[in-house]
Each structure stands twice: as structure tokens, then as C-alpha cells.
Amino acid sequence: MNNLLTTNIMFSLVFIVCSCNQDHSDTKADLEKDAPNSFYRFFVNTFYHNNKYEADLLDTKDATETSLDKKQITNNTDDADNIITYDNSDNIITDDNASISELIINDKIVGTGETPNIGDIVQIHYIGTLYDGTEFSNSYKENTPFSFEIGKGKVIRGWDNGISTMRRGGKRQLIVPPDLGYGSKGVGKTIPKNATLFFEIELIDINDELLIPPQNKKTVEIIKPSGLKMTIHKEGKGEPPKRGQKIVIHYAGELLDGTLFESSYDSRKPFIFTLGSEQVIPAFEEAFSEMKKGGVRTLQVPPHLGYGERVLEKIPEYSTLIYKVELIDFY
User: 20 to 30 Å CA-CA from 277: which of 89, 168, 184, 189?
Assistant: First the structure.
């Protein structure tokens, strides 16, 4: 795989948030010129690769997903948790002097929803340590999640491969061999040459609207006969759910003046309801009955499809409501 890409490592002690739209033809000098003096400058790695890179990543992702499927031991569909866990105990390295040649994945929480596609914007928290436990980077301490475009060579290869099979809310350990990390060069005095790296990764979000640059946003607006107005940010995949199925969603609701009155994103816990059971407002029933898994939409809900004349704690009577909604899963 070494002949598929070369890695230009910036010998610095701080990281930079990688630009989601960085042209792969940019030179190291360009990056050094444009990079702000921030915590993430240390982590800029420009990968110049040929057209086989994305195909190789897809092959790796498929192989990893197949491997994880074989290790599945628990599928907890309890509405309160909806968490799947995997047993990867056979992947643990026990020899302190051992080196590895392949990426090792140990899942702690798998999370929910779809895995990211090549080109999606992912937001993560992470802790990076060396083999002896020395911590060299921690986004939690900075309270600054890290965002990048998956599968485009914006980060080390171990991250592209290891995060591409994660789901939102998932947590996993990545044990990254030198060839998929910083190789024989290392990074200054912080990461030695030929170092095996350990990362604790938490996938916070995929393609959150705030993470996507305006020039990459593709939207379609439709108005239903009922008066429901929908802006489609992401179509999703597969068939829409059927009446009687459990729907797993994230949503955020605002008034027309921008006042936030409710959000499942804040708790990072999806909301689950049964489609067709009148457990939610009519606009939700209509919208989710035609959405596909992974779909993201903004709903403008007229009063008769929302709460009508009812007065809630933060919602006046006859309010037009704005919801950002995402169909994570259904079963």
C-alpha cells in the first residue's frame, strides 16, 4: 500500500483542524502558510494519492464491517439504550515490545445509524497515546472536537480506515501501526519514528449541517398538499419505514424567531416512537413516513400539523415550528 500514497509530515508540536475542502494538490508550503497557530497544527498531514485510494478505502471498510459483523454478541434494541456491542478481546496486544502491521479495532460502544460515506464530514473527540501510555494529544482537554472529510486523505490512514466503519455515538480504540500512522519519520520529539499509536475515538456526528461548507450543501425544497414544507439536505438510503415500525430519530425544534425549545442532540440520546401510532405531531408522521434511513431534513410545520391551539411551556398557541430531523434507523 506504500506506493499508493506518500505522507508529508509537518514537524510541529500543535495540531490544526483539517479543512474539509482542502485541494489534494496543495503543497506543504501552502498548508504551512494557511494554517492558523492552533492546537491542531500538529496533526496536519497532506496525503498525495492516486485514484485507487478511495477504492482501497471502500475495500477496507467492507472487510472491517464483515469482520465486526462476525464478532457481534449483543443487539440490545431496548428503546432506552439501543446500543450494540462487539467482542474484540482477541485483538488485544499483550507483548509490550510487540509491533503490529495491521489496524486493530476494539469497539466499546458501536452507536446507532449509518456509517459515514467517503466525503462525509465527521466530528470526533479523541485521545492519542504512545505504546508506553504517554499521551500526546487529547481533544477533550481542549474541549474542541475535531472535524474532517472522511476518506480523502485529510488525516492519517489509520483514522480514515478506522473511523469509516463507526456509527454516531460510537466509541472505539484504534491501535494504529506505523505504516498507517506517521511511519519512519514520526513527528518531532512527540511521536517517535515507527511508533504504534493508540487512539480512543468517539464519533460525535456525521454531516451535521454546521460542519458542511456552504458550497458542498445540496438541498431540495418541497411543499406537501398538507402545507408541510420540507428542505431535503440528505436523501438517505433504502426504503422508507412502514406503519407500526419503531422509528429512531434525532431532532431539534425552534420557533420562527430561532428560540430552541427542544433537542435530542443536546442529550445525545435518540428519540424513538412507533410510526402511525399518533405518538408525535402530524408533521412527524407525514415526514418520516417517506424518509429513508440516514436522511436529514428541515421541516417548517404550520400550526395545524404541530400543536395548534395548545400552549406548551416554550411553545405559544398557533405557532409555526421549525424542526431539523434525521432518520437514524427503524425496525
Answer: 168
Q: What DSSP character marks residue 19?
A: P
Q: What are phi and psi of 36, to 5 degrees?
A: -75, 160
Residues 233 and 296 sit within 8 Å (Cβ to Cβ): yes
Strand bridging mode 72-75 / 45-49: unpaired
Residues 156 and 277 in one domain: no
Report the pLDDT value the prediction gives residue 117, as an integer from 0 to 100: 87
Does residue 27 fall inside a structural domain? no
224 vs 238: CA distance, rounded Å: 22
- Identify residue 265 by its one-letter amino acid code: Y
Residue 79 grid cell: 428503546
Owning domain of residue 191: 50-206
Same structural domain for residues 104 and 189? yes
What is the number of structural domains in the chain?
2
Mean pLDDT of all residues in 182-206? 91
Q: Residue 265: its pLDDT value, please?
A: 82
Q: Are residues 123 and 164 in the same domain?
A: yes
* Distance in angstroms (rounded) separating the CA atoms of residues 241 and 275: 8
**Residue from 228, 242, 237 nearest 298 by CA:** 228
**Per-residue pLDDT tens digits for 124-164:** 999 999 999 999 999 998 788 888 889 888 899 999 999 99
Lowest-confidence region among 48-62, 134-148, 279-293, 305-319: 48-62
Query: Vertex 155, ends 151 and 161: CA angle to 5°?
Result: 45
CB atoms within 10 A of CB 121: 20
In a domain, 134, yes or no: yes
Q: How far is CA 52 from CA 63, 115, 145, 285, in A?
A: 17, 21, 30, 43
> pTM of the full predicted structure?
0.45
**What would the pLDDT profile of 73-84 be if each residue is shown by its tens digit?**
333 333 333 333
| C-alpha cell, 291 | 424518509
